[in-house]
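Encode chain A's predicted structure.
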Amino acid sequence: MGGIVHNKPWITAADRKAVEDVLVSGWIAAGPRVADVEAFFVDRFAAGAACAVSSGTAALFLALKGLGIGEGDAVAVPSYACSALLNAVQMAGARPRVVDVLADSLAIDPEAVAHRAADAKAVIAVHMFGARAPIEALRGQGRIVIEDCCQSLGGTNGDIPLGRGGDAAVFSFYATKIVTGGHGGLVWSPRQEVIERMRDYREFDCRETYYPRFNFQLTDIQAGMVLSQLRRLDEVVKRRQAIAKRYDDALPAGLSRWPRPGEAGTVPYRYVVQCNNAQTVDRLKTHMTQAGIACIVPVERYELLHTYLGLDPAVYPTCEQVVATSLSIPLYPALVDAESEQVAAALARFRP
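Encoded structure for chain A:
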């Protein structure tokens, strides 16, 4: 297949060897490599405990369970986000309270939470496309805060890793994420008892006592590859930042980047171009396609969480504006310099 694809995992010889080593070891289910991945996050956060699981959705669900969110509890979530948030909240027996997002970061709006989700016991704050969510403002409201770091692994706020400011942080190792094992996820929390409750749920078999649990285990095959990629996380972050800077320099007048650039320490998960209207989005996509570059609308209107739930779109003006005026261009560390230069040159030639 010719051209530059929108996303591609960066698989190195070290990653392949890491998987081969697990296969040779004979221990391919959850085991020592899973424990090593958990230890990496505990070391990175210099505190707490971690629980690796089968997916980011499982991580969200178990974070809610571990923090005591359950039947009938309200949970505030941003509408401009993955449907996994709705799935996890409703799987936990809780009730989603969907709110609008901030125009600069595309993160959940604390004022919208206060006004439209006043009964929320907890809030899931997504660091969307790697931009920082307003964790301190949300914590100031007195709610349980779960940081969704599925798109921000490697990001920092000053010297503090993103995820360190909430009651729990959730990560994903899906194929398109910053670090991948194909599938997988993890929850870190500063509170050991939260992680112990999660592990009790994850370890479903051979138990002396019974209550309904589920097999959310990560395999050592996946964990081996995740661990190999985590060991070069700093390099991944620098490559993403360098590519984003190249695109920033090429961005023609009349277009801007969403979320807004400029926060030191953030990891650009997607490079989302903001256009002035839907027609410009279509023209830009056609222009890039003709240059052999695949682009996508990162979140379609039908994927907005308020659309899924049949809620009034007038209550979500920022979300509605973003889906109508955004286009994501390729940004991932597997892009070689010649490819990212090709993308930047095509972007620079576009006339809004």
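Residues 5 and 143 are 41 Å apart (CA to CA).
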